[in-house]
Amino acid sequence: MTYILREMQSLAVQRCVDFFENGKPGRNAIAVAPTSFGKSLLISNVAAQLDAPVLVFQPSKEILEQNLAKFHAYGYRPSIYSASMNRKTVGDVTLATIGSVAGSKVRNSKSHLFQDFPYVIVDEADLAGAKKGQYKSFFEELEGVKILGVTATPYRQSSDSFGTQAKFLTRTRPRIFHEVCHYTQISEMVEQGYWAPLEYHHVKGFDRHAVKANSTGADFDDRALQLHFWHIGFQDKIVKVIERLKANNRRNALIFTRFVKEAVYVAGQVDDLAVVTAETSVEERAAIAREFRAGRIWGVINVGVFTTGFDYPELETIVVARPTKSLRLWYQIVGRGVRIHPDKKSCWIVDMVGLTGEFGKVEDLTLYCEGQSKWSFWGKPGGVEDRQLTNCYLTESGNNRCKKCGQRILFWARHKITGNLAPMARPAFGIKPNIAILSVEGKTCYEILPAGDPQATHLNHWALCGKET
User: Fold this and answer.
1) What is the pLDDT of residues 40-79, one digit of tens each?
2) Is 2 within the bounds of a domain?
3) Disulfide: which of 64, 360, 374, 452 matches 58 by Cβ 3.0-4.6 Å?
4) Same structural domain for residues 17 and 141?
């Protein structure tokens, strides 16, 4: 089968090839391709058009197999360098897993095999850490190489003493990627019918503000989360949700949970469910996936496994019972259900942990650029109004409410001149905003305006409570 590129895919290929052939030396780029865009098609077509050897990185065997299938569909036979595939050959186009070429130490690195490769493509580029890790070490061993990252989620979770934020890959320090050479908005996918309609259903009970964050602030504290789950009977809530879905004749469901214990409990209460965890062998995981896709298993409860690299267009129900502070994880979970299929009218997103209120519907995510590669994603948390979701502090644990008035603190920002840090809140009813949020040298900053100024959207929270700013 040979694939014919859609217009948006052809444009993406053109811009990526142009980056490799005409981009500025020393400046690497990202192509932002939403879930279901066809990253494998993009990568295979770009690699095929380059005039020199190219190394393509995949984070897992499953994604490597998907990319390989697209190359084969076009009649190309790339080399494979991956221990998990039991193949280690090098050719003009080489598909590799990072662990197989980077090694655990420099002396184990296979970088000498790729010294003549001027081009590198990184699939799931947000997994390439700029501070440390195998990608960073490997790239430092290659000289003069141009790197293209391809991802639907071009940001990484970062935490400090002020909170947690998702940092856009072109705005991290240090950074691997410097600019965006192409992007496709999710809205384009939706408008052109390349995303299945999503129907969001909310289940009450879980209170994310009642659970403290862990020591890094990047996620919820496991012990506190387990205690809250026990207090609200969360495991039984999952069971009831699944039983209602079956009663509503949903044909299948992919269920995401946080802990193995609750996954096993739920599977023991409801028939026709399988459990997949990080401890599940590769062979067993593949067998369960085959049975699920074939319709011989109604549902799969997975714990941190089927977030990327799992494609099942017929999937029509996703149960989100996995709390998270990660925008990336929310996107990846919902993304499992966006692929279109003739037998699927829509995909239900059953949100049991308030992520729609935290980040908004995934199809509302929009990419903006403030200039000079200052990119950021915005969304509509709670479906109300646009709000910046990357490069700003968004931690909302129970400690992020004002002890005096209970108002929720949305994020922290620094004054554009003094650098003083202040918590930002939405104005309470009847109070006019007096803060404008802006970006100064890639940092989220604020300036004070007259109350009610059209540019003012937030309120310095200390001012709201009558405290000294």
Assistant:
1) 999 999 999 999 999 999 998 889 999 999 999 888 999 9
2) no
3) 64
4) yes
The residues near 287 (Cβ < 8 Å, ≥ 6 apart) are none
Contacts for 194 with CB less than 8 Å, ≥ 6 apart: 6, 36, 37, 340
| Spatial distance between the Cα atoms of 405 and 266, rounded to a whole number of angstroms | 39
CATH number at residue 201: 3.40.50.300
- 180, 327: one domain: no
- What confidence category does residue 467 fall into, taking pLDDT thresholds of 50, 70 and 90? low
Residue 415 in 3-state DSSP? strand
**At 144, is the secondary structure helix, strand, or coil?**
coil
Longest dimension (CA), the chain: 69
Q: What is the token pair recorded at 367?
A: 């990419």
**What span, in angstroms and rounded, lies between the C-alpha atoms of 329 and 305?**
11
- C-alpha–C-alpha distance, residues 166 and 172, integer Å: 10
Q: Where are the beta strands (DSSP E) in 245-322?
A: 253-257, 273-276, 299-302, 317-321
92 and 175 in a single domain? The answer is: yes
- Domain assignment present for 469: no
Is 282:60 a contact under the CB 8 Å cutoff? no
Same domain for 234 and 347?
yes
The dihedral formed by the CA atoms of 252, 254, 260 and 265, expressed in degrees to the nearest 10: -30
Domain count, the chain: 3
Domain range spanning residue 439? 373-464
Q: How far apart are CA 418 and CA 17, in angstroms?
A: 44
Residues 6+ apart with CB under 8 A from 384: none
CA distance 74 to 236: 49
Residue 108: CB atoms within 10 Å: 9
**CA 457, CA 438: separation in Å to the nearest integer?**
11
Residue 144 tokens, joined: 């003069």
Q: How far apart are CA 152 and CA 218, in angstroms?
A: 21
Phi, psi of 68 (to 5 degrees): -60, -40
Write the pLDDT tens digit of every residue in 122-177.
999 999 998 988 999 899 998 889 999 999 999 998 876 656 789 999 998 899 99
Whether residue 219 contacts residue 213, with contact meaning beta carbons closer than 8 Å, is answered with yes
Cβ partners under 8 Å of residue 209, min gap 6: 396, 397, 398, 400, 401, 408
Q: How confident is the model at residue 311 (pLDDT cuts 50, 70, 90)?
A: confident
Nearest to 169 by CA among 29, 307, 33: 29
Residue 169 CA to residue 153 CA, distance in Å, equals 9
> What is the pTM (predicted TM-score) of this model?
0.84
